[in-house]
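Recap slide: SulP family sulfate permease, sequence and predicted structure.
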Amino acid sequence: MSASSALSLSEAKTNILSGLTVALALVPEAIAFALVAHVNPLVGLYAAFIMCLIASAFGGRPGMISGATGSMAVVMVALVVQHGVEYLFATIVLTGILQLAFGLLRLGKFIRMVPHPVMLGFVNGLAIVIFLAQLGHFKVKDATGAEHWIHGRPLGIMLALIVATMLIIYLLPRLTRAIPSSLVAIVAVALFAIFTGIHTRTVGDMASIRGGFPSFHLPAVPWNLATLRIVLPYAFILAGVGLIETLLTLNLVDDITDSRGRPNRECLAQGAGNLVCGFFGAMGGCAMIGQTMINVSSGARRRLAGITAGLCLLSFILFASSLIERIPIAALVGVMFVVSEKTFEWGSFRVFGKVPKHDIFVIIAVTVVTVFTDLAVAVILGILIAALVFAWEHAKQIAVKTRIDEEGRKIYELSGSVFFASTAQFQDLFTPREDPDDVIIEFRHARVMDHSALEAIDSVADKYQQAGKRLHLRHLSPDCYELLQKARSTVEVNLIEDPRYHVADDQIS
């Protein structure tokens, strides 16, 4: 092991304590998301343990934390309600296989194409989602099962404990960073509540976390095409949502730590984690931006932190459930409120008026859609908007200079890119009826990008032929020549000067 990769005692302590803090923060989240998906809380806790351990040990982004997530839980609800939890386990197995295939095909690199405004919208949207998710802890169920907001003394106690937790997290680092402030806050508030006898909601009020080691469990479903037709659509959605959230979180950690993760390796680790979850009675998951922010903010940068979190979570289930269940929910809510505040990119407000309006629109659109619908939909929508805006702006950059040479020929000197968004403007540049008998279109400073551009060139050549004019196309690439139909006879081939880029076209075999 090289000196740069070896863990110092101080760094090991930081990662272990951060892992313990993350494990405590994972408990209520895993329980809550399991309840959202209509499965037993242990199904969520086992998923958090398995995903956290495998992704941390083998993933491509040390310091990132994985577990059961709300973005995947909301997709599972309909499947569990309609077909039962065994179909969920089968779906998670297939989800893992799809994610493994994604990693093996090395498709993770394409996450680098996500525009920065989409990243800002993703971060802001998830920060709001984290905040809103905590509001559910301010509700209780009555004897009929109906939910009501807490009020009066219970509300006052809970708010006071939340404020105390947040103050410790914000103020302790000014005194010392030897111990993660989030861990100190959780322990201090828990001890205060226990020794003063304050009555407030605890982890145990949500559900019991006592259990055994997860055991191998083959999903009890018919292994036939009928089952595949049921689980495949859900598996595709879960795989997509999981990978998008994971890879965007990986990008975020890259920016924070000024380092470079390995997205394809992370895809493989996520796939392996979900595959194991499906065979061990767990609900699967992906990267968690909230717990990741806790970990990174604590200074943890190594795999040890995530591995510690996973093992601590398992030890809670096996040995320390009675202690963990006494932790006030308010302490964990306070931690997540701080995470939400630190995750939100407040600097995005400062870009208003300083960046193009369409970038601001993308940030707002992705944020809003993330909050009200689905993360995957939000990111895809943001990418589509950004791509269309780019195409529109790029299309306006095509230009032409015209001149008459000494032989009386009109020369069009093009600059810019000819592609689907600029073909109409490209064709409007030419005036076949008014031009002389000899016309040259010079592509030295222009580029033909796609099949739409080739069709536009063919169309222009056809117009000149119908007008009885001679057209010459100069400095087109050889592949353009091969794909042109009507205009092929007008191309002047120069093997030395002609460009050799390749047009993206399905006709090229």
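Residues 14 and 24 are 16 Å apart (CA to CA).
The chain is about 60% helix and 10% strand.
(End of recap.)
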